[in-house]
Automatic annotation (TrEMBL):
Cellular compartments annotated: Nucleus
Lineage: Eukaryota, Metazoa, Ecdysozoa, Tardigrada, Eutardigrada
SMART domains for this protein: CENPB
Main location: nucleus
Protein name (Swiss-Prot/TrEMBL): HTH CENPB-type domain-containing protein
UniProt cross-references to PROSITE patterns, sorted A to Z: HTH_CENPB (PS51253)
UniProt keyword list: DNA-binding
Organism encoding this protein: Ramazzottius varieornatus (Water bear)
Amino acid sequence: MNRLTPTAYTLRLPAKIKSGKKPLLSDMEEEIYRRFDDARKKGKRVQECDIQRIALQVSKERGIKDFKATRSWLYRYQERHSIVQRSPTHAGKKFSMTEEDIEKEAQFPDMVEEIVTLNNTPPSRMINFDETSGKLQNSHKKTLSPKGVKDVTVIDPNAPQENFTVGLAISADGYKFSGRGDFQG
């Protein structure tokens, strides 16, 4: 366990507490863990430097001036709270559809049918194009997670593209177009 040396923090404690073992920063560590857990529940990627930043922020809020979130403190903290570094098992971008998008989506099939009928479009000009995407594993983009968690999901709308998309098309007369791949990264 991480024990404190006599510092401004311990000097503020009553004499009875000072006489025995030095107190642990348990309440502060609980707050750090709560903020870490909140970020993970929101799907945010949390790295070691983020825990150090949170620890410094909490210590500043509590008026502890001489606290240093060193690498050794960080490793001991991670061990005490069973926090490990993991590669995300799911990654995604979180977007929401607007009312206008939902309305356009509902009108689309009727609009296509009207255009095909009015223009007397031949079957060779009616093409169905489908996309399917996959994810590339980017091992250097790891996140911290409690030990034993099976799914580590990260939601980041500003994340760099780590996906690939394959497009397949077929016309109404049965002609199959060659597949196309788009690799972003």
